[in-house]
Amino acid sequence: MNRVDFEGDFWFPVPPDRLWTVIERFDLFESWWRWLREFQADRAGLVAGNALHGTVVPPVPWRLRIDIRLQRCDRARSVQASVGGDLSGRALLRMGDADGGTQVAVAWSLEMRSFPLRVASRLNYSMMRWGHDRVVDMAVAGFRQRALTAAAVPPD
Questions:
Q1: What is the DSSP string of 35-50?
Q2: What is the DSSP string of 5-29?
Q3: CB neighbours of 96 closer than 8 A, spacing ≥ 6?
Q4: Hey, where are the domains in the chain?
Q5: Whole-angstrom Cα distance, residue 89 to residue 92?
Q6: C-beta neighbour count of 42 within 10 angstroms
């Protein structure tokens, strides 16, 4: 297998506008997640045309360089993006009001582009998928534990 397809639904205890503001705090991402390095955005905010760059260091023996280009952004509703770097594909995030908070649905389909990742996926896809799923779990937990606290309040 040379591809990771993922769909997930997550609930957060804040309204969509608040969660959107938290997600835009790119400057805090590396402090929220030990698995993210060298993270930067070309400009501020979840806006079409912006690009996010970083290195993902999952709990497996390889690193992934990622470039995310935001294609379409509808504030507090959805983000469509293309993914490049060591991976290639598309990603989608949708937000909606639910039970006094926000229901977030995410989906992506990513193909391994770098030679080491393609080899690793052929040799041990289950380990690669396990690493992917742990990063997703840590990202969601990071938003719940850190991003939705006072540390995420936008600067004055």
A1: TEEEEEESSSSS-TT-
A2: EEEEEEEESS-HHHHHHHHT-GGGH
A3: 16, 77, 102, 103
A4: 3-152
A5: 11
A6: 12
CA distance linking residue 3 with residue 71, whole number of Å: 21
The DSSP symbol for 156 reads: -
The structure's pTM equals 0.86
Tens digits of per-residue pLDDT, 74-102?
999 999 999 999 999 999 999 999 988 89
Q: Where are the beta strands (DSSP E) in the chain?
A: 3-12, 36-41, 51-56, 64-74, 78-85, 87-98, 101-112
Q: In sequence order, which residues have a C-beta less than 8 Å from that of residue 111 and are 6 or more positions away?
A: 2, 3, 87, 88, 89
Which tokens is 102 given? Answer: 């926000």
CATH class of this structure's domain 3-152: alpha beta
